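Field log, afternoon session.

UNIT: design team B
ACTIVITY: writing a sequence onto a fixed backbone
BACKBONE:
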């Protein structure tokens, strides 16, 4: 993965414009298991349905994935990500866990931990949350910050590696600055650079 790997136990903030290919490319790099190991991937979408994640991940990432789950709202899109369905014949089938109330933080948190704690073993685990911008549009920054801190504690306990998307163009500089202090490192998909060390809160 070159310079964009996330160490196990860390959570990164991925700054990028939604629907931009550079953001998707960076997301895939951050999720890919290290050293060609077969790992697990959890994608959490607060806006788009599961098919959107499968399109974003692409066959290359899924070929390196032992098991994948997408937590996302139900949609009427293609059935590729229905529970037990084969997404694209690349890698294992992707499970869809419905997200009934995407910005309800207790509901969201329980869906995430339910999946993560069934994966309590040594297989590399990557987590993508898309996005904090959706949460910030529904909750005060302090509430979202507490959610991130709890997520970090679970990621550390399970030795996973996670990143959270944020659209830096949707928030003022002060909000983005506050967010960066919550993460172990910060990645800006717009500059193409390596993962940088963040400053912990």
């Amino acid at each position: 993965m070159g310079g964009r790997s996330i160490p196990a136990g860390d959570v990164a903030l991925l700054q990028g414009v939604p629907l931009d290919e550079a953001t998707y490319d960076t997301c895939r790099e951050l999720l890919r298991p290290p050293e060609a190991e077969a790992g697990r991937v959890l994608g959490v979408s607060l806006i788009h349905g599961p098919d959107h994640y499968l399109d974003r991940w692409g066959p290359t990432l899924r070929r390196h994935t032992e098991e994948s789950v997408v937590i996302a709202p139900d949609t009427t899109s293609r059935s590729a990500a229905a529970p037990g369905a084969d997404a694209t014949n690349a890698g294992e089938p992707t499970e869809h866990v419905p997200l009934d109330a995407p910005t309800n933080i207790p509901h969201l948190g329980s869906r995430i931990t339910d999946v993560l704690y069934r994966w309590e073993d040594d297989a590399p685990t990557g987590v993508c949350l898309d996005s904090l911008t959706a949460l910030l549009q529904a909750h005060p920054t302090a509430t979202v910050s507490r959610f991130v801190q709890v997520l970090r504690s679970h990621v550390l306990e399970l030795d996973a590696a996670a990143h959270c998307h944020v659209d830096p163009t949707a928030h003022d500089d002060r909000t983005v600055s506050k967010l960066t202090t919550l993460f172990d490192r910060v990645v800006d998909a717009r500059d193409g650079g390596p993962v940088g060390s963040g400053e912990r809160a």
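LOG NOTE: The first strand starts at residue 11 and ends at 15.
NEXT ACTIVITY: expression trials, pending approval
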